[in-house]
Structure formats: C-alpha cells, structure tokens
Amino acid sequence: MYQNIHIETIGDEAFICDENYTIVACNSAFKNKEDLKNIEIIGMKCYEAIFKINTPCADCTLHQKKQTYRFHEWKDPFSEKYYNVLRLPMEDSKTGKIF
Fold it and tell me: pTM value?
C-alpha cells in the first residue's frame, strides 16, 4: 500500500499513520526502538505501539489544522522528550485517498 523505501532513508525513528491513528509504515529505526517486529507494528494504533495506551494522546496534533511541509515541535508527555513532527500529505495507492 505505502512504499517504505523512502522512509528507510531517514536515520531517526519515523512512521506514517493515517487519519485513524493506524500505523501504515515505519522504518527500521522505529521498529528497533519499539522492540517490535514490523508486521506487529503495521496496523496498530500509534498510541498503542508507542505509549502502550488505549486512547489517543490528549495533546495529539494529528487532527489539528494541517500545515503541510512544516515542522512543529511536539513534547512527549510520558518521556518529556521533544520531537520534530513533519506533516506531509500521503496518498493511499489502493484508494487514491489523500490524508
């Protein structure tokens, strides 16, 4: 469905999730950090895979007004680490839907 070749070129942890928080692709750095096999991660909700919680994070930016091709800083409420998040429009190759 989604091509992983480009995401593998990112050295830092990277994943792609759809509008329903479902992880549709991830790179090796993400897979290795989470200590899960790729097949287990794909299809999981991002909040389940990353934080082991049952609902989306209270401060999740996924559904905020989208500003594509812009980085924004996000603070992980559990580890207190900061991350740079990049929003990019993605197309589902099977349905043609942009998210």
Answer: 0.73
